[in-house]
Amino acid sequence: MSISSSARKPKGAAATGAGEGAVAPPITLSERSSTGLALLRILVGYLWFQQLFWKLPPTFAGLYGYVVRESQHAILPGYGALLQHTFLAGCSSLLSPVGCTAFVPLAACVWTAELLVAISLLFGLFTRFGAILATVLSVQLYVGLAYTEWIWTYGMLVLLALVLVAVPAGRRLGVDLWLAPRLQAAGQRHRLTRIASWFV
Questions:
Q1: Burial 128-139, CB ≥16 within 10 A → b, else e
Q2: b/e per residue, 146-169, with b = 16+ CB within 10 A?
Q3: Distance CA 36, CA 123 (A)
Q4: DSSP for residue 107
Q5: Which of 89, 109, 110, 111 falls 20 to 30 Å from 51 in CA-CA distance?
Q6: pTM here?
Q7: Three-state SS across 50-80?
């Protein structure tokens, strides 16, 4: 598995003028490293899958306390106010989503996004898309909850997601292994398919 998409240059191309820097060769992961990253991907996917069960629909009640904490302890100025005017709009209690006008539909969006991350990473299906979504969700958790727990808890979740954005980990032990060559071949004719091929 190659991390770089740079084409190999002829031997003579390495001998450039004194003013130009040497071109580093592309980094290629061994099969063992690729499999290790695939297992990491599956582990992170299982983490997201496991977190779906304490905030299940139709009420998403388990999520409510965390949103309240985020609104009170956010590290980003204005983020708490944003939550209070969206998720917590109309709420009359800090203990339950009584009277909240937008909590359930917005919580459904969060739950669905986490489900998509879990499916994507567990099965290696459009893994980079799932990893980008995981990064966004992790950053949101870091901004809202970093001060309420060990500050690196959500920071490490962000870093794990970024690793899976950078490396096509779904091309080992995942559906992307089958999808990638087909999307790349079709991408020579269709622009949208070429864009989609980056997400595997």
A1: bbbbbbbbebbb
A2: beeeeeeebeebbebbbebbebbb
A3: 15
A4: H
A5: 89
A6: 0.84
A7: HCCCCCCCCCCHHHHHHHHHHHHHCCCCCHH
